[in-house]
Amino acid sequence: MTSNTSSTDIQLDIRGAHQEIAVIRLSRVAKRNAVNDSLILALRDIFEKLPTTVRAAVIHGEGEHFCAGLDLGELEERDAGQGMHHSRMWHAALERVQFGPVPVIAALQGAVVGGGLELASACHIRVADETAFYALPEGSRGIFVGGGGSVRIPKLIGVARMTDMMLTGRVYNAQDGERAGFAQYLVPEGQAFDKAMELAARVAQNAPLTNYALMHALPRIAEQPAEQGYLTEALMAAIAQSAPEAKDRVRAFLEGRAAKVQKS
Q1: DSSP designation for 27
Q2: What residues contact residue 145 under an 8 Å CB cut-off, 6+ apart?
Q3: What is the CATH number that goes with domain 2-204?
Q4: At what angle do helices 159-168 and 149-157 cross, to 10 degrees?
Q5: Tens of pLDDT along 161-201?
Q6: SS3 per-residue string spanning 109-122
């Protein structure tokens, strides 16, 4: 069962028997899905208005590329204040992806460059196929990342690797990118979307409070001093396990009605 919403730059398709998976497709194929202001604002609006049935989301790019970054053809001349506000607009939009209502899986192929890499880094799981490549060309163009990349990308690959990419223009291929930490999964060419959908279906089955804790609490715990992190963890654990759904799942396991963990 599907439900569709579309615009010029981005399309939303709600899938699943219970309308539980949101599929978001970047649709600027002629521009290699480069991001302009209307697309980033539409992305923000999608995450602010997702139906309550949705439990997970997949973001992918139409055509051969995920996203080739900021559309420089639409880059306006701005003074410092205007530039700051423009960057903060991106921050607010990608904040809705990272700290929105549902976990987000990115299906990556071809260019994952500049603003496209910033978007991918705001997602919770990244699946790349063998055509994917990663770059941050802002350094060679006399600009700096402005969509949250300086915060999110070093958490994936480290400050030293990001510095190298921006200073030298280094490009990572799919295999090296997975080893560096850009993606958690690497699949054959053309299979990233199918793998992302498989993962989204699995994620959608989790208890909502557990998913919320992983999206909203875990990243903040990781940045807290240990003693504060332990307290936040204890509070979140108490809240999650008190939910009726959590109690039902634990009871099912104890009664032998739930599958046990198996070696993959």
Answers
A1: -
A2: 114, 118, 136, 138, 153, 166
A3: 3.90.226.10
A4: 120
A5: 999 999 999 999 999 999 999 999 999 999 999 999 999 99
A6: CCEEECHHHHHHHH
Could you give the CA distance from residue 85 to residue 258 in angstroms, rounded to a whole number?
50
pTM over 0.85: yes
Q: Distance between CA atoms of 212 and 220, rounded to whole angstroms?
A: 12
Residue 1, pLDDT score: 43
The 10s digit of each residue's pLDDT in 60-88 is 999 999 999 988 777 777 889 988 999 99
Which residues are the active-site residues?
118, 138
State the pLDDT at residue 196.
Answer: 98
Match domain 208-254 to its CATH number in 1.10.12.10, 3.90.79.10, 1.20.120.1200, 3.40.50.1820.
1.10.12.10
Residue ranges covered by each domain of the chain: 2-204, 208-254
Residue with tokens 């060679």: 140
Alpha helices in the chain (DSSP H): 37-48, 80-98, 115-122, 149-157, 159-168, 174-180, 192-204, 208-212, 218-223, 226-242, 244-254
Q: Specify burial of residue 128 (Cβ count, 10 A radius: 0-12, 13-18, 19+).
A: buried
How distant, in Å, are the alpha carbons of 184, 220, 244, 261 from that of 240?
A: 26, 16, 9, 20
Check residue 72 and give its pLDDT. Answer: 77
